[in-house]
Design a protein that fits this description.
This protein is mainly α. The chain has one domain. It is 64% helix and 0% strand. Helix 1 packs across helix 4, helix 2 crosses helix 3 and helix 4 runs parallel beside helix 7. The longest helix is centred in the middle third of the chain and has 19 residues. The N and C termini lie far apart (45 Å). It comes from Rhizobium rhizogenes (Agrobacterium rhizogenes). Pfam families: Xre-like-HTH, Xre_MbcA_ParS_C.
Length: 127
């Protein structure tokens, strides 16, 4: 008996899942299309097409990888805020002493996105 288990989704399925997840995360974080576009390195019209699923992020593309990082930011912040979107949005929009910046402003650069994610991951699961 030859049984082949598929261990990973195919690329279009991955693109669809990540596209839907990043749009949902951005909306729950209160990020508008322009800010989401800046974070992902795509245009605002592309973000609009993503919302309609007329454009899917492609695994391996820079925008796909940035989307995964933004999803991780959302998941960490959501866990810390206990699912309270108001708390998460307020945290994102107010100056953070440890980051020395407004977290939402840092998300538009790769290093800033990593800084915010590292900060949240460190606060979420202290060892």
């Amino acid at each position: 008996m030859n049984v082949h288990a598929k261990t990973a989704m195919d690329s279009p399925a991955q693109g669809r899942v990540v596209t839907k997840a990043v749009i949902a995360a951005a909306e729950r974080l209160g990020l508008n299309a322009a800010r989401t576009a800046d974070i992902l390195g795509v245009s605002a019209p592309t973000v609009s097409r993503m919302k309609r699923l007329d454009f899917l992020l492609e695994p391996g593309a820079k925008s796909f990888e940035l989307a995964v990082l933004l999803i991780r930011v959302f998941r960490s912040l959501d866990a810390i805020a206990g699912g309270d979107e108001v708390v998460a949005k307020n945290w994102l929009r107010n100056h953070n002493v440890a980051l020395n910046a407004v977290p939402a402003d840092k998300l538009t650069t790769i290093t800033g996105l990593i800084d915010v994610l590292s900060y949240l991951d460190a606060r979420r699961a202290p060892v």
